């Protein structure tokens, strides 16, 4: 008997099948209080200290909608080019789970607050449009901790603890329509989408969007269809993938796994799956059919949400420039190529460069210092750029010293070294390390005389009509001055001396 491989190589998988994806992203809003009660939402409080009868689902407790939560939902919808419902309701999604004390989740079903939107992501210089099916409001559940098992999962646990602090925190679930892009780009497009969403949500100031703290969570639906087929295959839904990189890895893994199942004649099971960061695989969760019966019905304890068109327009007017639009504008005004811009973004240097350019530094110079010097140091130290002791102000000061001839690039680099080592202000570092460029005629002329004396053959060549040979003399002078000579000044003095 031959046993089929667990996974195919990704290239083999994509040669036979086209992947289709659908992404569900849950965003925890940064409202001060919960969605349907006044409890605080702060992260990290001792268990069950941020609860009340409403979020504990005690009999007779009545919820009230948090207006700020609705406002954030509308802003998110607008930023994703959605239509905003004129009238919509909450719905009860009924199921039993210990971390959901009401035995239903207050959510939205067939009447989401925002729907029919779109957005764009850029991967390798290509723009891909992603259709948004809906963005709806709901509440988070509590958090279960399973004790005693090896993996932290319920299997093998002796008991479980439940913390209801998170129960009732407002969530927005953003659901894409099916995404079909060139197969080789699929996983990267998914990653770019989640990363773009994070930037967008940050710019809207509606969430902390901390994937590590669970305030941004992604469920990735993936299915395969034979090349050229137009019928959708059976999807799996990989839950709670919690970093951009994991989104890409988990989708790639599912493509290779499903391809192995299908190509050996098997059927993909419609189920949820768990992503394992350490081993890089997904494992089976629970079987999930489209007919799962949550017995949705409109929430009778809450009034419908009917945002006036005036309010929606007011909110639209407050939206900041979309991050993608802003980037395109900056790239244009800085004159950077796509590749340069990608380096800037991947290096998290966009904001420092913006701030440095605002202080009058040319964009190319700002990029040179941030990406060339400071990013390397930050990397070595395991720090973010904005955590360095050198900020836009210092970069602008150093650049000014380059512009006025006090420093050249090489010396400027040493000044940055001194600044990062905490040796004081740029002036103090220059003083302590003796870094200023020499542009006084006296010492330069002495060095030129030494260079001429040491290189009679070069002088001979120049005199016999080859002025280009003088370059070697400039090199000798710079070496003599340990790189601390004003090169333009040296050239000028040397030309005068040799009569070039
Ligand atoms: P669920 O209740 O299962 O979470 P949702 O409607 O919230 O369903 O989300 C389903 C997601 O899966 C959507 O993004 C949708 O576009 C996507 N999807 C649906 N069918 C497929 C399929 N065959 N392959 C991949 N993705 C799919
Ligand atoms: Mg869903
Ligand atoms: Zn409460």
From TrEMBL:
Transmembrane region(s): none
Species this protein is from: Kribbella rubisoli
Gene3D superfamilies: 1.10.10.410
Enzyme class: ligase
SUPFAM superfamilies: GatB/YqeY motif, Glutamine synthetase/guanido kinase
EC number of the protein: 6.3.5.-
Reactions it catalyzes: L-glutamyl-tRNA(Gln) + L-glutamine + ATP + H2O = L-glutaminyl-tRNA(Gln) + L-glutamate + ADP + phosphate + H(+); L-aspartyl-tRNA(Asn) + L-glutamine + ATP + H2O = L-asparaginyl-tRNA(Asn) + L-glutamate + ADP + phosphate + 2 H(+)
SMART domains associated with the record: GatB_Yqey
Subunit structure as annotated in this protein's UniProt entry: Heterotrimer of A, B and C subunits.
Domain of life assignment: Bacteria
NCBIfam families attached to this UniProt entry: gatB (TIGR00133), PRK05477.1-2 (NF004012), PRK05477.1-3 (NF004013), PRK05477.1-4 (NF004014)
GO biological process, one term: glutaminyl-tRNAGln biosynthesis via transamidation
Residue intervals of the Asn/Gln amidotransferase domain: 351-498
Family: Belongs to the GatB/GatE family. GatB subfamily.
Record's function text: Allows the formation of correctly charged Asn-tRNA(Asn) or Gln-tRNA(Gln) through the transamidation of misacylated Asp-tRNA(Asn) or Glu-tRNA(Gln) in organisms which lack either or both of asparaginyl-tRNA or glutaminyl-tRNA synthetases. The reaction takes place in the presence of glutamine and ATP through an activated phospho-Asp-tRNA(Asn) or phospho-Glu-tRNA(Gln).
A Pfam family that the UniProt record links to this protein: GatB_N
InterPro entries assigned: Asn/Gln-tRNA_amidoTrfase_suB/E, Asn/Gln-tRNA_Trfase_suB/E_cat, Asn/Gln_amidotransferase, Asn/Gln_tRNA_amidoTrase-B-like, GatB, GatB_Yqey_C_2, Gln_synth/guanido_kin_cat_dom
Gene: gatB
Keywords: ATP-binding, Ligase, Nucleotide-binding, Protein biosynthesis
Gene Ontology terms for molecular function: asparaginyl-tRNA synthase (glutamine-hydrolyzing) activity; ATP binding; glutaminyl-tRNA synthase (glutamine-hydrolyzing) activity
Protein's name in the database: Aspartyl/glutamyl-tRNA(Asn/Gln) amidotransferase subunit B
């Amino acid at each position: 008997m031959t046993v089929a491989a667990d996974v195919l190589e990704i290239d083999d998988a994509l040669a036979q099948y086209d992947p289709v994806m659908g992404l569900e992203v849950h965003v925890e809003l940064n409202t001060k209080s919960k969605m349907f009660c006044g409890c605080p939402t702060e992260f990290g409080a001792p268990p069950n200290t941020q609860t009340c009868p409403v979020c504990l689902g005690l009999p007779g407790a009545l919820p009230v909608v948090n207006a700020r939560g609705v406002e954030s939902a509308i802003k998110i919808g607008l930023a994703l080019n959605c239509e905003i419902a004129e009238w919509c309701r909450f719905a009860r999604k009924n199921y039993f789970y210990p971390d959901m004390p009401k035995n239903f989740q207050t959510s939205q079903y067939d009447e989401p607050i925002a729907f029919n939107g779109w957005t764009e992501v850029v991967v390798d210089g290509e723009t891909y449009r992603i259709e948004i099916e809906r963005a709806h409001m709901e509440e988070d559940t509590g958090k279960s901790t399973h004790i005693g098992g090896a993996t932290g999962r319920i299997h093998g646990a002796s008991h479980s603890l439940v913390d209801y602090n998170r129960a009732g925190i407002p969530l927005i679930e953003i659901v894409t329509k099916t995404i079909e892009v060139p197969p080789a780009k699929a996983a990267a497009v998914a990653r770019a989408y989640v990363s773009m969403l994070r930037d967008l949500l940050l710019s809207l100031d509606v969430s902390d969007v901390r994937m590590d703290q669970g305030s941004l969570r992604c469920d990735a639906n993936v299915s395969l269809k034979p090349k050229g087929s137009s019928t959708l295959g059976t999807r799996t839904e990989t839950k709670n993938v919690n970093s951009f990189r994991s989104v890409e890895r988990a989708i790639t893994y599912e493509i290779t796994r499903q391809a192995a199942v299908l190509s050996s004649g098997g059927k993909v099971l419609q189920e949820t799956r768990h992503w394992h960061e350490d081993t890089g695989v997904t494992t089976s969760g629970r079987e999930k059919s489209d007919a799962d019966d949550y017995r949705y019905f409109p929430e009778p304890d809450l009034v419908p949400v009917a945002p006036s068109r005036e309010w929606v327009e007011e909110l639209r007017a407050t939206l900041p420039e979309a991050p993608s639009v802003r980037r395109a504008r900056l790239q244009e005004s800085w004159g950077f190529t796509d590749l340069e811009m990608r380096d800037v973004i991947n290096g998290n240097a966009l904001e420092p460069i913006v701030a440095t350019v605002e202080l009058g530094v040319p964009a190319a110079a700002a990029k040179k210092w941030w990406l060339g010097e400071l990013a390397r140091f930050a990397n070595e130290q395991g720090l973010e750029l904005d955590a360095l002791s050198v900020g836009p102000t210092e970069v602008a000061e150093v650049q000014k010293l380059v512009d006025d001839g006090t420093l050249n690039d090489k010396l400027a680099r040493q000044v940055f070294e001194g600044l990062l080592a905490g040796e004081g202000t740029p002036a103090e570092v220059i003083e302590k390390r003796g870094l200023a460029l020499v542009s006084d005629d006296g010492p330069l002329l002495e060095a030129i005389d030494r260079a001429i004396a040491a290189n009679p053959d070069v002088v001979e060549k120049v005199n016999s009509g080859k002025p280009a040979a003088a370059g070697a003399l400039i090199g000798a002078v710079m070496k003599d001055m340990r790189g601390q000579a004003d090169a333009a000044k040296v050239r000028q003095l040397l030309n005068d001396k040799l009569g070039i």
